[in-house]
Design brief:
The protein has 232 residues and is an alpha/beta fold. The chain has one domain. The chain is 39% helix and 19% strand. A hairpin with a 3-residue loop joins strand 7 and strand 8. Helix 6 packs across helix 8 and helix 7 crosses helix 8. It is globular.
């Protein structure tokens, strides 16, 4: 197997063949190369990006309701779900409400402080615009875990920074090109592929790094861990 995890090789190859190596590595760990990535929105009124990453094939779609997302996960039989959403509250917080006394414990978790120290842009878990998303993410994660799935928290923007891909707001089509160059075969229900779908694909890709044992877990048990690709 190629030593693709060395940072200089990763840059030099422009990521070609990475998926094949990840799939092989996952198989050697007696795991199934299957992960469902969810770029979750804060409301069922706005569709979430979904990616079913199976071997090298990425099946991309947009799904609105929690019920439909749960049904898709169940239909695809994967054991790993990777969600782009905060899946825990800052230590000391009992709720997301700004009017509650627990607001004194802040709006940011340890994993977000770590990312900021590394120069990776990230929103605090309980900033006003993230509160409904956090609640929805925690609710869905609970449903999946109760059903026996492994659920990880992913952050596509952070993963894209680590993989040296442009974020969607910088160059959406280049992000798509770089992801495909890894060896991913995309199958989308619409053209062009949307930014929500590409973030869902990135979330699923983080799941592959997790299954391959090439990941970093940042945060703490009380607040939850964020999973990042580990290249070294």
């Amino acid at each position: 197997m190629a030593d693709f995890c060395k940072e200089e090789n990763f840059r030099g190859s422009r990521h070609e063949g990475i998926i094949e190596n990840l799939v092989n590595r996952i198989h050697t760990r007696n795991q199934q190369p299957l992960c469902i990535g969810i770029d979750l929105t804060g409301s069922e009124k706005k569709p979430s990006g979904i990616c079913v990453l199976r071997d090298r094939d990425a099946y991309l779609s947009l799904i609105a309701s929690d019920e439909s997302i749960i049904e898709l996960v169940q239909q695809n039989g994967g054991a790993l779900v990777s969600i782009d959403s905060s899946l825990g509250l800052p230590a000391g917080r009992c709720c997301v409400l700004d009017t509650c006394d627990c607001r004194k414990y802040g709006i940011m978790r340890e994993c977000e402080r770590i990312l900021r120290k590394r120069g990776i842009r990230v929103y605090p878990t309980l900033i006003k615009s993230m509160q409904n998303l956090t609640l929805r993410g925690m609710r869905l994660a609970g449903v999946f875990r109760d059903a026996g799935y492994t659920v990880i928290e992913s952050y596509p923007g952070g993963a894209q920074d680590i993989l040296q891909f442009p974020r969607k707001k910088i160059n959406l089509r280049q992000l798509e090109t770089d992801l495909i160059a890894m060896g991913i075969i995309p199958h989308s229900d619409r053209e062009p592929v949307t930014h929500d779908q590409l973030d869902a694909l990135t979330s699923a890709l983080v799941g592959y790094f997790y299954l391959a044992g090439m990941y970093e877990s940042i945060g703490n048990e009380a607040e939850g861990y964020l999973i990042l690709p580990e290249l070294k």
